[in-house]
Amino acid sequence: MLLGLLISVGIVGVMIYALIRFRARPGQEGEPPQTFGITRLEIAWTATPFVLVTLLFFVTVSAMQHSSPGQIALNDGARTEPRITIIGHQWWWEIRYPSGVVTASVLHLPVGQRWVAAIKSVDVIHSFWEPQLGPKIQAVPGQTNYIWLEADRPGVYHGSCGEFCGAGHAWMLVDVVAEPMAKFKAWEQQQMTSSLGSPPAGFTASEATQGAALFGHYSCGSCHFTAIGPSLTHMASRSLLAGGAISNTPAHMEQWLLNPDAIKPGVHMPNFQLSELQARDLTAYLESASAPQSASHSVASHWLVWNAKSHTATLTLVAGYNSALSGFNFDGYGKGGMVISVPAGAHVNVVFTNKASLPHSAVFTAYRNVQAASGGFAPAFQGASSPNPVSGTTPGQKQQFTFVATKAGTYALVCAVPGHVQAGMWDVLMVTKSGAPSIKAGKAAM
Ligand code: CUA
Q1: For 340-395, where are the alpha helices, taking DSSP H only?
Q2: What is the pLDDT of residue 217?
Q3: Which of 90-99, 132-141, 223-232, 361-370 bottoms out in mean pLDDT, i.e. has the lowest?
């Protein structure tokens, strides 16, 4: 700016001087004497801007390198691995921490820390824009961009998507909550707990339980557990709902569930035509909910929803839920790390989504087949397999299958695509003589 000011003062000064000094005076006729071909002057006015612009070029490049975590800035000793990953979706921001915490729309940041943020997109070009904390940066599908994210003072900073990305673009906000490190750590710890909290004021625990069953019934998890829709973990702790279209209150949640499109035109969440009572139950559940997290998540009850009346267990299985075992897992678990129990005679309705980048399948087979691993993974019950178990379900696809767990015993849940069990892609199914179904992390006692 100083340089620019100097140049404009110089130019305007000379212009004003020339206007006054060489103005037309009374009695003057025709043009003033014309001057041509002064070589020294021509060289000077060519060379000066050339030198100036060349200098400015190098100053600009060096400033650009130091203002973004590109290769050179990454060499200056700052921590280089991204401490946070921000992913643009139509139309909400997904926020992932190395601790495994995944949230949406509201980003927590410790004050005074300079974080490298990796910016990505899963669909179209978005632009992450938090004007008080850093530059605007594009979120491009198939490419990762990096920025520094740093807040000097605690507070809530408002940002948004800065690039038109479709009907919901205006409602793709992002709030940054900058807080002291201790508070940030406490928040992160709280996000990693997975017990269902108390329902919001005015709602009852039994409404929340009803809501959990509805959540399973409508397979909400097949989007919200798989980052197709925002994670709903600790939804109650967030200030924004629907990507920022409305503030997050139980009353807004009910309106949102009853007719999402009225609040956010174009939104990808369908209208499930819920009754007001159902919307209320779901609100009781979601506004007190906490769902499993990746890295250190425990398996929460809503991955397995039990309907005692119809004797049906709805089981949400996600292949490649997180990076555990390089994606060779179910719901984040493999190598027998997850145990599903259902009573004999139960109908098991499996909602299977492949979130990994390779084809995977889900088959319930005899437990001994895991040890033998000879490639034969015949279903232990009629229909206890996703279609085409050997070739697998294409990445991104969702499939449902239902079977009856007819006989008590120990079984394995495997991916029958050759080699995948060896990579660790197997868990345990216990069919008990009676009792309530459960889903647990940890090795089975057998
Ligand atoms: Cu995303 Cu505009």
Answers
A1: 368-372
A2: 81
A3: 223-232
Lateral strand order in the sheet of 363-366: 363-366, 409-414, 426-432, 338-343, 438-441
Closest by alpha carbon to 279, among 301, 264, 257, 306? 257
* Spacing, Cα 91 to ligand 1 middle (Å): 6
Q: Which residues contact 218 (CB under 8 A, 6 or more apart)?
A: 272
Distance CA 329, CA 223 (A): 18
pLDDT tens-place string over residues 189-204: 888 776 566 778 888 8
The residue that leads in pLDDT, 282 or 65, is: 282
User: Within 13 Å of residue 95, how many CA atoms lie on the same side as its CB?
Assistant: 23
Provide the pLDDT for residue 295. 28
Task: Answer whether residue 251 shows pLDDT above 70.
Answer: yes
Write the DSSP assignment of 118-182 as a string of letters.
Answer: EEEESSS-EEEE-TTTS--EEE-BT--EEEEE--SS-EEEEEEE-S--STTGGG-EEEEEEE-HH
Evaluate: CB of 159 within 6 angstroms of ligand 1: no
Atom of ligand 1 nearest to the CA of 169: 2
Residue 79 is encoded by which pair of tokens?
Answer: 């921590």
Q: Is the pLDDT of residue 443 over 70?
A: no
Is the CB of residue 85 less than 8 Å from the CB of residue 118?
Answer: yes
Q: Locate 204 and state its tokens.
A: 């009852």
Is the backbone of residue 321 left (phi > 0), alpha (psi -120 to 50) or beta?
alpha
From the CB of 163, is ligand 1 less than 6 Å away? Answer: yes
Our answer on whether the CB atom of 161 is closer than 6 Å to any ligand 1 atom is yes
The minimum-distance atom of ligand 1 relative to the CA of 124 is 1
- Give pTM, 2 decimals: 0.57
Question: Cβ of 374: how many Cβ atoms within 10 Å?
Answer: 7
Report pLDDT for 70: 62
**Is the CB of residue 42 less than 8 Å from the CB of residue 36?**
no
Q: What are phi and psi of 165, to 5 degrees?
A: -130, 20
Report how far ligand 1's centroid is from the alpha carbon of 175 (Å). 15
The response to whether residue 235 sits with its C-beta less than 6 Å from ligand 1 reads no
Residue 31 one-letter amino acid: E
Ligand 1, residue 165: give the atom nearest the CA: 2
Phi and psi dihedrals of 128, rounded to 5? Answer: -80, 125
What pLDDT, on a 0 to 100 scale, did the predictor assign at position 82? 64
Q: How confident is the model at residue 149 (pLDDT cuts 50, 70, 90)?
A: confident
